[in-house]
Amino acid sequence: MEKLSIGKMAKLNNVTVETLRHYDKIGLLRPAFIDETSGYRYYNIKQSAVLDMILYMKALGMPLETIKEQFDKEDIEIIKQMLNEQKLSTEKKIKELTQMKSAIEVCIDNYNRYDEIPKIGHIELQHIGQRKIFSYDGGKNIYEHNLAGYEFILRELKEQVIIQHLPMIYFCNVGTILRKEILDESKMISTELFLFIDDNFEHDTGIDYLPENDFLCIYCPSFATEIDYANKLFKYIENNNYKIIGDYICEVVVELPIFEQGERNMFIKLQIPVEKC
Q1: CATH of residue 28
Q2: Predicted TM-score (pTM) of this structure
Q3: Which of 30, 180, 184, 218 is exposed most, by the fewest CB atoms within 10 A?
Q4: What is the pLDDT of residues 36-92, one digit of tens each?
């Protein structure tokens, strides 16, 4: 047998000496020969087959403990079961990464929208397509609370996200709904919060849609000024022969990573679906 030093074995297989030492330590791949006098460890080139299998299984995403279990039991059925489990785990990770990619794209889009918005307080008509949301009715009128109270209400929404096993990345794009029937009574009462979610996200509880419509929109710089800007929007609708045909939407377009006095810094888009009278 040609004795290969640990360094040569590592070099031939494009792994580090530390990797081989770790595999030896956990009993996954031990040296073929240990010199009793010097304590040096030597490998046989044929052991490269074992090392190839270890690296292959690692590339499939299997942890070393799982690989060692398979080697110890030498049972093909076990490896098939492990591969099926790894397949399911990989599919879950792909789904999570796809959702993360989508959330990143939405976040980039929101910051681009922030850069391109018209002057604060400017009113414009926009056609907005159908949007998929997860909604939650907390039973508390948002407009009866200050920013601190709003934060407590957001904690309830966040808890629902956890309970319903929704991706936490959706929590960055929050909104509120004021129903048309309440608007028709000239009241500012909203107890419903929502999150925008991907069209392809499959979930049953709390899923709703914001219908496609023409919306009169105005941008607002803070939670504290929303009602003032909403009233400006209502007055514009009245003075320009528009009719409200749906629910009032308050969307947090972007949250800025700038915290004045430790408070949430939101940039808000107010939207009311309308048609000409």
Answers
A1: 1.10.1660.10
A2: 0.65
A3: 184
A4: 888 888 999 999 999 999 999 898 888 899 899 888 887 788 778 888 888 898 898
